[in-house]
Amino acid sequence: MKPQDILKEKSSMWIFGYGSLVWKPDFTYKRSKIGFIRGYKRRFWHGDNFYRGDKEKACTWGVAYEVTDSQIEQSIQYLNMREVVLGGYVTEMVEFIPQEKGQDTLTALVYIATSDNPIYLGPASDKEIATQIAICRGNTGHNIEYLVRLAEFMRLYCPDVEDDHLFSIEAAVLNIFSDCGGIRPRDQKALLFTAT
Question: Can you list the alpha helix ranges (DSSP code H) found in 68-122?
């Protein structure tokens, strides 16, 4: 189902984010829930200097945002520009499983990077990915910020979830900078995010 089809059918919808959307959605939403989707893994295999997803048998943790009424059209327009036009993503509808026990699963829209994307780089070692992150900066900021904020989110809101790929790349980036005085992870209280 395409996002424009959803607009015709619903007065509210959920959008799942697993990268920068967990800490910077940049659209208005009614509420949010932390949880995961099955069948996808988060990977740094996309050449536009953002943290992207790859379909595999796994779980990807993030945040689902409920948008209602006029928020639906506005958020879809914004995200289609941000994720599809500029990022080369495709959209899929997925089952979102909330972290909080006893809540029903939700159907959510997710933006996914695939190997068909012209800026798909494919697998690389943690050290190669860390080197790329350390030197790259885009229009929305430095890749190190993206990596560190995502790792902060996982530690703060999903402390029992081990994301080996994310944390090993974070360690490799921090190792690159250790010889020049290092960089320290941000204060966990500084992460401005509230889930409801």
Answer: 70-79
CB atoms within 10 A of CB 13: 23
Element (H, E) at 64: strand 52-68
Separation of alpha carbons 190 and 192, rounded Å: 6
Residue 83 falls in the annotated catalytic set: yes
Q: Give first-to-last CA distance, the chain, whole Å.
A: 27
CA distance 130 to 172: 6
Q: What angle do CA 161, 124, 92 make, to 5 degrees?
A: 60
Question: Rounded distance, CA 43 to CA 99, Å?
Answer: 21
Set 83, 92, 152, 170: catalytic member: 83
The pair of three-digit structure tokens given for residue 153, joined into one six-digit string:
């989110």
Select, from the ranges 4-8, 32-36, 113-117, the one with the highest average predicted confidence (pLDDT).
Answer: 32-36
Instruction: State pTM to two decimals.
Output: 0.80
**R_g of the chain, CA atoms, integer Å:** 17
138: Cα separation from own chain's centroid: 16
Residue 55's pLDDT band (boundaries 50, 70, 90)? Answer: very low
Q: What are phi and psi of 153, to 5 degrees?
A: -55, -50
Do 80 and 3 contact (CB within 8 A), yes or no? Answer: yes
